[in-house]
Structures are given as structure tokens and as C-alpha cells.
Amino acid sequence: MRTLSLAAGAKIMEIYESDDFEVKSKSDDSPVTAADEAADAIISAGLREAFPDMALVTEEQSASHTQDVSTFLIVDPLDGTKEFVHRRGDFTVNIALVEDGVPTRGVVYAPAKGRMFLTLADGSAVEEDGPFGDEMGTTRPIRVSEPDNDALMVVASKSHLTDETKDYIAKYATKDFKSAGSSLKFCLVATGEADLYPRVGRTMEWDTAAGHAVLNGAGGAVVRFEDHEALTYGKDGFANPYFIAYAPGVDLKPA
């Protein structure tokens, strides 16, 4: 998964650094570029070769969205396409393994930022220091913060900050607020750079599974917004409800 994320990231950056690239619209009006499609081809081929008997769900292959599975690989080859299109750098390659509805292994690679987050075989989460080669380099264990509920660090979406999300954040005593794109928000909570990430807006499981796995490995949690029950995977159409990702020391407010 790490190797495929690096190969996909290299292709994405080749297109990102080109003079121009075409942006098309999908049926839901979300953007898609040649980078999404090229990265998907690299990752899908590699995963199918390595894990031929494992179900594969990927954003760019709509036929994969009709599966009824609880254990599967799930891919967003370029999460944060809007950040990519606007050349803001906050985009990631997401690859995850879900087992019985729980994301257990994940890789989140942000090629423009040179950051790589992943889970190890024992389930713990690390950040790898670049430059990234064929062999894994130096890694550092990452761990969620011990938050101060009177001065929380909050992170939220850069491109999808809804009024509902702002209203929910207003229930907390916040020290700082930062916006970030893609699944990097999960990773900022996982490293302790943020305490809380609420998402009161539409997401799909491929947007969240890899970051969720990394956050789990760092001692964090992701729960449903409405009832604070654990967010599970393999749902109908792989669509997520609203959710909250957080360090467990945060005193969660009701929806």
C-alpha cells in the first residue's frame, strides 16, 4: 500500500507540475482530473495483483460502489481534487484495509507536502520522514493530544466548511482553528496538531477510511455526529453520515 501510494503520488505530481491539465465534472458535479484517473489505474492494478481475492472499492470505478462487503480494500487515489485543481497542495493518496467494518490499515500520502502517515502491522500509526524511497525510512510514532477542553485546537475542511460545522465548533472553547484539505485533517488529529475535526457535510468511505485507520492507530476515534456511536464501514453505497474525529480527551458536545 505504501509503495503504490508513492507511485501514484509521483504520477499525480507529474501532472500537478505540468503547465495545464483538464478538469472534468462527474455526475455529482465533483471535479475529476487525469491525475485522479492515472493514480487510480496504478493503485487498482497493484492491489488486484497483490490481493486478488480481496474486494476492492475505489472512488473512480463506479461499478465497485454496488458491492455488499464488510472486509475490503478501499481507495481514493486523489483526495482533495479541488485543492489539486487550485494548486493548494492539500491533497492526498488514500489506501485502506477495512476488516469487519473497521479500518485497520491505512496509508495517507500527501505528495505536495512531503508527508506520509501509515499504520504498521501491529496497528500503531507512524509518520515517515522523507525523502521516500523503495524501503521505508525513519518513522516516528504518532499519538493524539491530551486536549485542554478550555482551549481546543480544531481543524475543519478548507473547501467544504458548512454553516452547520461552524455552529457545532462554536459549542467548544477553542484556542485555534485551522483549515486543511483532504484526509490530512485526520492526520493532524492523529499527530496531536489538532484535537477535534467535526464534519457536518457529505463524505464517502473512500474519503475517510485511510485517515480513520491512522487516527485509530494513534489512539483517536471517529464517531457518528448524531449519536456518537463508532463510524463503521461497508455501508449502503459506501456513504458516510456526518461524523466527529477527535482525541478521546475531548468532551464531546451533543449534535
How would you describe this protein?
The radius of gyration is 17 Å and the shape is globular. The longest helix is centred in the N-terminal third of the chain and has 17 residues, at 34-50. The protein folds into two domains: 2-141, Fructose-1,6-Bisphosphatase, subunit A, domain 1 (Fructose-1,6-Bisphosphatase, Chain A, domain 1); 152-246, D-Maltodextrin-Binding Protein, domain 2. It is built from six helices and 14 strands. It has 255 residues and is an alpha+beta fold. The protein has helices at residues 2-16, 34-50, 81-85, 163-169, 184-190, 205-217; strands spanning 23-25, 31-33, 56-58, 72-79, 92-99, 102-110, 115-119, 125-128, 139-141, 152-157, 174-180, 196-199, 221-224, 243-246. Strands 3-4-5-6-7-8-9 form a seven-stranded mixed β-sheet, with helices on both faces. The protein has a three-stranded antiparallel β-sheet with strand order 12-14-13, sandwiched between helices. Strands 1-2 form a two-stranded antiparallel ribbon. Helix content is 25%, strand content 28%. Helix 1 packs antiparallel against helix 2 (34-50) and helix 5 packs parallel to helix 6. Strand 6 and strand 7 form a beta hairpin. Converts adenosine-3',5'-bisphosphate (PAP) to AMP. Mg(2+) 2 binds at residues 76, 79, 207. It is found in: Cell inner membrane. It holds the Pfam family Inositol_P. Keywords: Cell inner membrane, Cell membrane, Hydrolase, Magnesium, Membrane, Metal-binding.
